[in-house]
Amino acid sequence: MRLLLFVAALLLPQLLSAIVAAAPVEDPAGSHVHLGYPPSPMTAREALLLLSEGHQQPATAAYGPLEPSRTHVTPLHFQVLSWWRCTPHHSANVSCHIRNLYLHNGEHYVALLNSDVYPLGSYFLRLSHMADPQPPKELRFKTVEEAAAFFEGKTDTSFNLTLYYGVPWGIMSNWGHCVFDGMYGAYLGMLEFGLEHETVDQIVWKNGEKPMGIYEKFIMRFGGGQLLEWKDMAALYNSNNTGANGGSAKQYLRLNKAIMGSGRKFQRTLQRDVALAGRSMDGLWRFTRRAIHRLNGTTPRDHMLRLPHLNDDFVVQIMNNGRWTEAERKGLQAMAANITARKNSTHPITVRYMDWGEMKNHEDQYKVQLQMQAETDVCITGPGTSLMSPPFMRPGSFVIGVGHCHSFEDRSVATKIPWYMETYMCEAANSYQKCLYLKSRTRCNGMNLTELEELIYQAYNDREYDLPLPAGANLTPEALVFKELCEAMGAAACDKLLDEFNLPGSRWLEMIVYEVLEYHPDNKNTAHGLLNRTLLRQIRKKYEHLLMEIPEAKRGPV
Question: Is 492 exposed, middle or buried (0-12, 13-18, 19+ CB in 10 A)?
Fold first, then answer.
């Protein structure tokens, strides 16, 4: 017995080392070690002190100066007037940490002195992917005493840290838009200011509908505080509150500490490296792990390990996609049944076909979805919202993107191109997940189930792959073309192209690579002058064996 215990003591360190190999490590106390990504620029305490009296630290690489610049400051200035620090990024990608942000009549305001310079108004404060810039409006006062008198008796104060963001089109019932086109961008602001572990309230700006129960629960648990809707805030704090007849006299809500100004940190926003924003901080990993452990009431460490299989099954999940045809769905279901029926000790693969829509009445749907994802080795899906869930899978998992063939008329010509769309979700997960794709070159010939089955077995045979993956490993050929194009054009020229590309609308990198729609050679719009077609075609030539062939007649002039 003593001999067994001695051997176990010798082997235990090696076993634990093997279990955590290549796995991200997260410490709930705030220190992070993850394959080289930088720690948060400051502790939560330091971040919360940044806007406090007596802590007017100068700008650093992590954050800009305390603004506006004021002299002869008293405690009253910090109690009433607005202050902020913003991240020193491209003006279109700025996050701001604001003290004393005021809500009134459904709008947001900063309280300023007449002598204050207001650069915040020139920042690209975009609260969701589809929103126009929304810098706070100005309330100007001659003196701080005048400001204090103005707000006296008609202002409520929230002392909690508040995430203030929007959702495109007011869609709170769509997982992808609700979480990754609004909430995720605001979270990156928390990350940049070292506040990722804080409990926060959330105000969703001008959302048009009540969120579905499952997403409301997800958002509330993620923040830990209240979820407040803009329309409720507009009804509670407005100019009609005069205090007459015993009614409320509170016309303003003062947010003592708020994160806003997400810039272009959402999904559907194209970056130079074709990864979801925040990859330099491994933002997607940290976002999904926080979500998982808060939803399940567990610690992050329970969900970070690359554990060996506890049973023999290698589980493949096909996630239904609305872009697939009925014939494609039936073909996928038949393939799933056939592979599962052939399961043996050499290839113990189980394939299941899932439609989350069938679970819409479940009391805690997304918690169940996350649990199923945690038990899945391979997720097969198409573009769109269904690509927003695979990042919640465990380290060492796979995603197989089957894409779809997008048909449309381009300048009165029937056109088809392969359409993979949100490949940047996969690229942002390259520290813990591997993505494979059906071949772009033949995708518009139909969904090749033989090829898909080969990818499933390829994933099984490669299930012990090394992490992290190199940059670009999770990209489609089209995305690789765009990434190389940006590098060849240079940062300044690429940023100009992206500034135009990322304007509110529906654009995808495949449109650039295949030169269609807004990027058609004959379309002499703003994009035409920003796109270097000579470089594009040189790089496309390099990948032509992987891309769908473009007929010579459709290539057009440079």
Answer: exposed
**Count of H-run helices and E-run strands, the chain:** 19, 17
Q: CB–CB of 339/453 below 8 Å?
A: yes
Cα–Cα distance measured from residue 29 to residue 299, given in angstroms and rounded to the nearest whole number: 11
Neighbour tally for 325: CB within 10 Å: 12
More confident residue, 551 or 226: 226
Supply the angle between the helices 491-501 and 477-489 in degrees, to the nearest 10. 130
Spatial distance between the Cα atoms of 107 and 91, rounded to a whole number of angstroms: 22
CA-CA-CA-CA torsion for 162, 168, 169, 175, nearest 10 degrees? -90
How far, in Å, are 16, 56, 138, 295 from residue 11 at the CA level?
9, 53, 65, 35
| CA nearest neighbour of 277 among 186, 357, 194 | 186
Q: Are 81 and 144 in contact (CB under 8 A)?
A: yes
CA distance 166 to 178: 9
How far lies 115's CA from each of 69, 118, 141, in Å?
Answer: 10, 10, 9
448 contacts: CB under 8 Å, gap ≥ 6: 438, 439, 442
10 Å Cβ neighbour count for 464?
A: 10
Q: Is the pTM of this model over 0.70?
A: yes
What CA–CA distance (Å, rounded) separates 252 from 236? 9
Residues, the chain = 558
User: 443-500, pLDDT tens digit by residue?
Assistant: 999 999 999 999 999 999 999 899 999 999 999 999 999 999 999 999 999 999 998 8
Hey, what are 113's tokens? 């002195």
Residue with tokens 């023999």: 312
Comparing 70-79, 124-133, 359-368, 400-409, the range with the smallest average pLDDT is 359-368
pLDDT tens column, 403-430: 999 999 998 889 999 999 999 999 999 9
Q: DSSP label at 65?
A: -
Pairing state of beta strands 32-33 and 25-26? antiparallel
Contact, 388 vs 366, CB < 8 A? Answer: no
Q: Which residues pair with 224 in a beta bridge?
A: 200
CA dihedral 421, 425, 426, 427 (to 10 degrees): 100
CA-angle at 259, arms to 139 and 278, nearest 5°:
140
